[in-house]
Amino acid sequence: MIGKFESVLRLKVLVCLVGAWTIVMAGKGLAQQTNGQSQSGQAPAAQTPTTQAPAAQPDSSQQSQETEMSSQRRVRPKDYRNWTFNVGGGASLTAGTTHTYAKSGGAVAAAGVARNANKYFGLQADFMWADLPLRGGSALNLAQAPGASSHAYILALDPIINLPVSKKDSGYVLFGPAFYHRSGMLDSSSTLPGAPCNGFWEWWGACSNASVPLSGDFLKSNLNQFGYNVGGGVARKVHNYVEIYAEYRLMHGTHNNIKTDVRPITLGVRW
Questions:
Q1: How far is CA 209 from CA 167, 176, 201, 206, in A?
Q2: In this structure, are residues 242 and 269 in contact, taking their beta carbons and an 8 Å threshold?
Q3: CB environment 151-179: b (16+ within 10 A), e (fewer)
Q4: Taking the model in full, what pTM does it have?
Q5: Whole-angstrom Cα distance, residue 126 to residue 128?
Q6: Sequence-separated contacts (24+) of 217-222 with Cβ below 8 Å
Q7: What domains can be seen in the chain, in order of their start residue?
Q8: Is 139 left (phi over 0), alpha (psi -120 to 50) or beta?
Q9: Phi and psi at residue 55, in whole multiples of 5°?
Q10: Measured on CA atoms in the order 133, 139, 145, 146, is the torsion positive or negative?
Q11: I need a surface site. Which of 14, 109, 119, 207 has the fewest CB within 10 A?
C-alpha cells in the first residue's frame, strides 16, 4: 500500500510540475506576442519634409506683357539707313576774289555717300563739279583772250548732323575739310611772255616772280588748294526712303594766297 501511495504521489507531483511549466511557457509566449504587436503598431517618427514650397509664379498677364515687349524690341526695324546716297545739280554763286573774275550762275553737279552711325549722326563724302565762267571785262580783257573755260573739282569729307522734324520732313547741317582742284583754259592770249602780272594772272595762278612766265605756258591753269566747306539743307520724303533735298554750301579753298570761293545751291535726290 505504501509503495502504491508513493507512486500515486509522484505522479501527482509530476503532473503539477508539467502544468506549472506549461503555464509559464504560455505566459512567456503571450508576453512576446504583446511586445511584438506593440512595436509593430508604433507610428514612425515624423520626418522633416525635404521638399521646399514651389517659388511664387509671376503673374500670367505680366509675363505675357514682358514677352510682347521683348518681341517688339527684337523685331522693331531701325529708324535709319546705314548708308545714304545722293545726286543733285544746280548753280553756284561766287564770292571774294573769285567773284571778281568769275560770274555767278555756273552749273553745279554733285554726288555723295554717307555712312550713318544712327539717325542723327553720320560721315558724308561728296564730289562736286562747279563751272566758273570768266567775266568779259575783268577777266578776259585782262587776259587779252577771246574766250576761256574755268571750273573747280571739289572733294569734301564732312560730319553730318541730321535733324528730323516729322515723318516726312527733315533738315541737316554739315561741315568739314575740302580739297579743291581749279583748272581752266584760255582760247588764246595776246599777252607777251614776261609781261608784268595783273590781278587776273595772279588769280589764274600763272604768275612767276610777278610776271607772266617766259615759257608762254600761261594759257592753262591748274591749282590745288585745301580749305573747308560748311552747309545745310532740307529734305522731304516722297517714297519710302527716297527724299528730295535742297542744299546750300559755303566753300573756300586757298593756296599761296590764291583763293577759290563758291557757293553751290543744289537740288537733288537722296536714298
A1: 59, 34, 12, 10
A2: yes
A3: bbebebebebebeeeeeeebebebbbebe
A4: 0.71
A5: 7
A6: 218/189, 218/191, 218/193, 219/185, 219/186, 219/188, 219/189, 220/183, 220/184, 220/185, 220/186, 221/150, 221/182, 221/183, 221/184, 221/185, 222/181, 222/182, 222/183
A7: 78-270 (2.40.160.20)
A8: alpha
A9: -65, 150
A10: positive
A11: 14
Cell 504587436, residue?
37
Among left, alpha and beta (phi > 0; psi -120 to 50; other), residue 112 is beta
Residue type at 164? Answer: P
Cα angle 133, 113, 228; round to 5: 50
